[in-house]
Structures are given as C-alpha cells and as structure tokens.
Design goal:
3 helices; extended
Length: about 80
C-alpha cells in the first residue's frame, strides 16, 4: 500500500500544479497550503478510510497591497544550463 499512497500523492501534486498554472493564467492568485490538520479535513469533507487529503489550495483574487512577494535572487544566479 505505501507504493500506491506515494503514487497518489505524486499524482495529486501534479494535478494541483496544473490547477495552479491554469488559475494563474486566468489572473487568479493561488496558495498551496501544507501543515494542515489532515484528519480534520478528512472529517469535514466526509472522506472515506481509503481517502487522504494531499494538499489544500487557496484560489482567488489577490488584494492590492496584500503581502508583497519575498525578495528573490535573479533566475540567472540560481539556474544554469550547460
């Protein structure tokens, strides 16, 4: 069963990434959330014993002046192609 669970988590992550890209292409902001109470989420959404929440993803419109993006290094400093 651990192999099936790992594959399910991988598939859920790829699905969430696709949703993030699609939402951002529509001008929406997204925020994947980790560290949530998985048992609480499963209970509130009536998930069955074989179902497991992989990730929570907030999707909506960003509010002007809301949390600014953290400063990041330029891409050329952290990524190199050979």
């Amino acid at each position: 069963m651990p192999i099936a669970r790992d594959e399910a988590m991988r598939s859920a992550s790829l699905g969430a990434a696709t949703l993030i890209y699609a939402a951002e292409a529509l001008g929406l902001a997204t925020g994947p959330m980790g560290g949530f109470d998985a048992e609480g989420v499963a209970r509130e959404f009536n998930l069955g014993p074989g179902e497991l929440p992989a990730m929570l993803l907030a999707v909506g419109r960003a509010v002007p002046g809301n949390w600014p993006q953290k400063p990041r290094r330029p891409l050329g400093e952290v990524l190199h192609f050979s």
